[in-house]
Specification:
five-stranded parallel β-sheet, binds 2-acetamido-2-deoxy-beta-D-glucopyranose, 29-stranded mixed β-sheet, 49 strands, about 20% helix, disordered C terminus, Rossmann fold, alpha/beta, disordered N terminus
Length: about 950
């Protein structure tokens, strides 16, 4: 057993805290005793992580101001997020245990150094992100990463890469070296050769000015995707067939005035490229022709955004490529689009003209584009739906978002019967007339969010039979009238967040039997709108959001008809954050009918209580959020009907403790969030009631730092449950420990092992036994003396005051067998001849009184006690009592009151221990009758003298025969 006596404990529970008048402080048993025996807390604190949390197999330590890789993360994690910290160095041992790790994110740190061998244990690692650090030279630091497929080194200061740096990365497919200072591909040339599986190479903005294909020889054979945008490339030269698999090439994005010099000597050159981005590039006409020629018959997607010049020329060249189908010409300040601009682009099916300041379009602008399927005109300055789109009868997607369109006409979409997706969001549309969407019979998605729509005007009453998704968020709708959406027979998602809806007429959603999600967040909907059965038609609804409205019930009594009684398929009901004032009581049948409800969010609704039948109707509930309410009491019975509950959120309530858990049957609860409550003590019973708990969040509670939390602290050390932020739990009570960390509390002095108690008590028992044996053997008489001294004290207390003066000269103690001698010899001589007044027990004792009291009284009432000693006397119990009492008096008053008259010669060794005590006192008077046989006169004279002496102090002996023991 190792006991460590700690002289300087970390934070001692001293007595001052015990004096604090905090409710519930109890000084634990054995506290002071065990103060000496305390042992340090285990330094490895179980599952309370210092700076991180674990979610499933993901360790999340981002933005925690970490300066080093934390060492307390379980080795089994699959992802490890250390992004946005202050780590400056990776050490060899930092990731030693994480053989199962798949993803490691170290982006946005200050890493300038990686020790060799830091990653050798990460055999399973797939993705390593070192973006936004301060690496300058890449050495041989990637050893062991044979399974790595993705390495991101963007935004460092890398200038050189050691030739063998990437050698271990035999499975790497993605490499991002963008935003570094490489300047020259020859610097990475040798390193890249070791990447036989590389498919995606990002070298954006690395200061490249010359690209020569030989620089990538042997390293790019498998390359499919090359992003070298934002470099200031002057010379682009392909002299060898290095891009045998390249399909995606971005060499755009540079803002250079200088023209690119383009040399393609290798006929195979870029012949497999399907997607090319030459945004912002200046190309001589000859070079442009050369480029497009080399892509003839392969190019399908061309991006020419923000071209500084000759866009028309480039369009005329590129649009002769018969395979070109997707054209993106954003940010070219076109203003007007006429029919000549795109006249050769007849093969284009997807055209993106976003962000071009287009105000006007000629009606025949898209005449050549008869096969167009997707047209984006977003972020322009259109004030109407341009008539040019009317002819695009094959159009499937039309994006007109972020323009200045304020009204829609009945003919705007007249011929777009094939349209599937229509984006009209972020305009200034205020009204939608009934006829606007009349021809869009195949439309599936309609985006009308962020407009000024105040009225639905029956726009959805009849038409849009195939619409699946309608977004009306952030408009100015105030009411939904009966049948407003009746035409939307196929609608699944309806979103009307952030309007001003304050009236939902009965039948608002009639016909919407396919609807699964309806979002009504941030409106002005009141309880009166929802109670009348407005949702009754939504029989397929899975998700209903009523967050941030004005629903408020005053009483928990049952409603005449429950608002969701037909929504038996509803899985999520969110109604957090009701913003009307006043207390909220949930009617006890509010959730009636929601037999499949899984998630109920009633956060921050000013709920003050919950009727215990509230969840009677939702037996499948798994997630319940009642945080930020003024709940003061929760009945454990509330949880009886929801045995499947997995997650419970009760942060910021007024519940004073978690005691309601003790009786609640939450055997499946895995997640409990109870931040910012007033919990001061977490008990064994509370946690014991949650056997399946995986994650516990008690951040911001006001913990009591004393022995009451001993169990909790010990549990934190060994639990399998992850306790979020446990290292930052702070003491709130008692006053003198306020602000200190709960986990720094030393509770060693609070608790004692049962084993330890056994050990101590056994040891004590053995020691006591040995001490007793020792004492008995060597000091028994001294002990007996001490014992009598003690009893004498008691007797003195009891009798001293009662017997102030003596009634008798002597009390005669004798055995009945010696009665004869007493009456024949002693009594006549002493009473009749010498005139003493004697007390004889058979003559003078008060009848009915306990015999011991009589004896005691007699002895204290007599000046002397004469013990007539014979063998029988010594055997008799009562006689020895008399000696005892007389002895007490002897000890007590320090007077020689005892006169021993021996009727027989008794050898010393036969005498009782009282005789031996004489050795200590030497005050006793002995007279021997047998030895006085010849000379009885002297005997009586001696007795007379002995009776006469009053105080006989100092061992004055009246010896006739004094037997001294030897
Ligand atoms: C590396 O990846 C392969 C293929 O996915 C996998 O079978 C193997 O188990 C991985 N190696 C390690 C050490 O995880
Ligand atoms: C490319 O590889 C071939 C053989 O695989 C080799 O002969 C040649 O020297 C390599 N080229 C470069 C530039 O390393
Ligand atoms: C691509 O080939 C077609 C057909 O041979 C030709 O008409 C067109 O001009 C070529 N385009 C370019 C850019 O070379
Ligand atoms: C608690 O749940 C268990 C299993 O889910 C069940 O057997 C037990 O009867 C329940 N106890 C109470 C008090 O409801």
């Amino acid at each position: 057993m190792d006991l460590i006596v700690r002289l300087e404990p970390r934070l001692r529970l001293d007595s001052p805290m015990m004096e604090d008048d905090v409710v519930g402080i109890r000084r634990p048993l054995l506290f002071s005793f065990c103060f000496l025996f305390s042992w340090p807390l285990n330094s490895c604190v179980g599952f309370a992580l210092k700076d991180c949390r674990i979610s499933k197999d993901n360790a999340i330590c981002s933005a925690s101001k970490l300066r080093a890789v934390p060492g307390d993360i379980p080795a089994s994690v699959k992802t490890f997020d250390l992004a946005a910290n202050k780590i400056s160095q990776i050490r060899a041992g930092d990731f030693i245990n994480y053989t199962a790790l798949l993803q490691l994110d170290l982006k946005r740190n200050s890493i300038s150094q990686i020790e060799k061998g830091s990653f050798t244990s990460l055999r399973s690692l797939r993705k390593l992100n070192l973006n936004n650090n301060r690496l300058a030279q890449l050495g041989d630091v990637f050893g062991g990463l044979s399974n790595l497929t993705e390495l991101r080194l963007m935004s460092n200061d890398i200038t050189t890469v050691a030739p063998s740096s990437f050698q271990p990365l035999t499975n790497l497919t993605v490499l991002d070296l963008s935003f570094n200072k490489l300047k020259d591909l020859t610097k990475v040339h040798y390193a890249l050769q070791h990447l036989p599986n590389l498919q995606y190479l990002f070298i954006r903005k690395i200061g490249l000015t010359i690209f020569q294909s030989w620089e990538l020889t042997n390293s790019t054979v498998g390359l499919a995707y090359l992003d070298m945008s934002q470099n200031y490339i002057d010379v682009f030269s392909i002299s060898a067939d290095v891009f045998q698999n390249l399909t995606w090439l971005n060499i755009g994005g540079s803002q250079r005035k200088q023209k690119l010099s383009w040399k393609i000597d290798e006929p195979a050159g870029l012949s497999r490229v399907t997607t090319l981005d030459i945004s912002g590039l200046r190309l001589a006409q000859k070079d442009a022709r050369g480029l497009f020629q080399s892509l003839n018959f392969s190019l399908s997607t061309l991006r020419m955004n923000a071209m500084k010049s000759n866009l028309r020329e480039l369009l005329n060249m590129s649009c002769t490529i018969p395979t070109l189908t997707q054209l993106q010409i954003r940010c070219n300040t076109l203003r007007q689009v006429d029919s000549r601009l795109l006249r050769l682009c007849s093969s284009v099916t997807k055209l993106d003209l976003a962000d071009n300041c287009i105000q006007n379009m000629f009606n025949d602008s898209f005449r050549a584009l008869q096969g167009l399927k997707s047209l984006t005109l977003s972020q322009n300055r259109l004030s109407l739906v341009p008539p040019a789109v009317r002819n695009l009868t094959r159009l499937l997607e039309l994006d007109l978002s972020s323009n200045n369109i304020s009204s829609l006409g009945c003919q705007d979409f007249a011929d777009l019967g094939n349209l599937r997706v229509l984006g009209l969001d972020q305009n200034s549309i205020s009204t939608v007339n009934q006829c606007v969407f009349k021809d869009l019979t195949k439309l599936e998605v309609l985006k009308l969010q962020i407009n000024q729509i105040t009225e639905l005007n029956s726009a959805f009453k009849i038409y849009l039979p195939n619409l699946r998704q309608l977004k009306l968020d952030k408009n100015k709708l105030t009411a939904i009238r009966q049948g407003d959406f009746e035409g939307l027979r196929s609608i699944q998602n309806l979103s009307m967040q952030r309007n001003q809806l304050c009236k939902l007429e009965n039948g608002s959603f009639v016909g919407l039997t396919m609807l699964t999600d309806i979002l009504l967040q941030s409106n002005e909907i009141q309880e009166t709108d929802i109670t009348a059965g407005v949702f009754n038609d939504l029989i397929n609804l899975r998700k209903l959001s009523l967050l941030d409205n004005r629903i408020k019930y005053k009483s928990s009594s049952a409603l005449p008809s429950a608002p969701f009684s037909r929504l038996s398929r509803l899985e999520t009901l969110a109604m957090a954050g009701q913003h009307s004032r006043g207390r909220f009581q949930l009617p006890r049948n509010f959730l009636q009918g929601l037999t499949n409800l899984l998630i109920f969010d009633a956060r921050n609704v000013q709920l003050t209580s919950l009727h215990q039948d509230t969840f009677k109707y939702t037996p499948r509930l798994q997630k319940l959020d009642i945080s930020s309410n003024e709940l003061t009491d929760v009945s454990p019975r509330l949880f009886d009907p929801i045995q499947d509950l997995r997650s419970l959120y009760i942060s910021r309530t007024s519940l004073l403790s978690l005691d309601f858990l003790n009786e609640a049957n939450l055997t499946k609860l895995e997640f409990l969030q109870a931040r910012r409550n007033q919990y001061s003590v977490i008990t064994k019973e509370q946690m014991g009631a949650l056997p399946a708990l995986v994650y516990l969040d008690l951040q911001g509670n006001s913990f009591l730092c004393d022995c009451d939390n001993t169990w909790f602290l010990q549990w934190l050390n060994k639990t399998e449950t992850q306790v979020f932020d446990a290292y930052n739990f702070v003491c709130n009570y008692p006053q003198h420990l306020k602000g200190l960390k709960l986990l720094d509390l030393d509770v060693g002095s609070c608790s004692v092992d049962v084993e330890f108690i056994y050990f101590i008590s056994t040891t004590c028992a053995i020691l006591l036994f040995q001490l007793a044996a020792f004492t008995y053997h060597f000091l028994r008489w001294q002990l007996a003396y001490a014992y009598h001294l003690f009893l004498a004290l008691l007797y003195k207390r009891k009798f001293r005051n009662r017997q102030p003066e003596c009634l008798y000269d002597a009390f005669v103690s004798y055995n009945t067998h010696d009665e004869d001698w007493v009456f024949r010899e002693l009594l006549p001589k002493l009473e009749e001849e010498q005139g003493w007044k004697l007390c004889l027990h058979h003559r003078d004792f008060e009848p009915g009184k306990p015999i011991i009291d009589n004896i005691t009284q007699a002895i204290y009432a007599s000046r002397k006690t004469i013990c007539v000693i014979s063998r029988r006397y010594l055997e008799s119990e009562w006689c020895s009592r008399e000696i005892q009492v007389a002895s007490f008096r002897l000890f007590d008053e320090h007077k020689d009151v005892l006169i021993l008259v021996f009727l027989e010669d008794i050898p010393v060794w036969e005498l009782s221990p009282y005789y031996r005590m004489r050795k200590l006192l030497k005050k006793w008077t002995f007279l021997s009758w047998p030895r006085a046989a010849q000379c009885t006169d002297l005997f009586w004279e001696k007795l007379r003298q002995a009776l006469k002496t009053r105080d006989n102090v100092g061992g004055e002996l009246l010896l006739l025969t004094v037997k001294d023991s030897t």
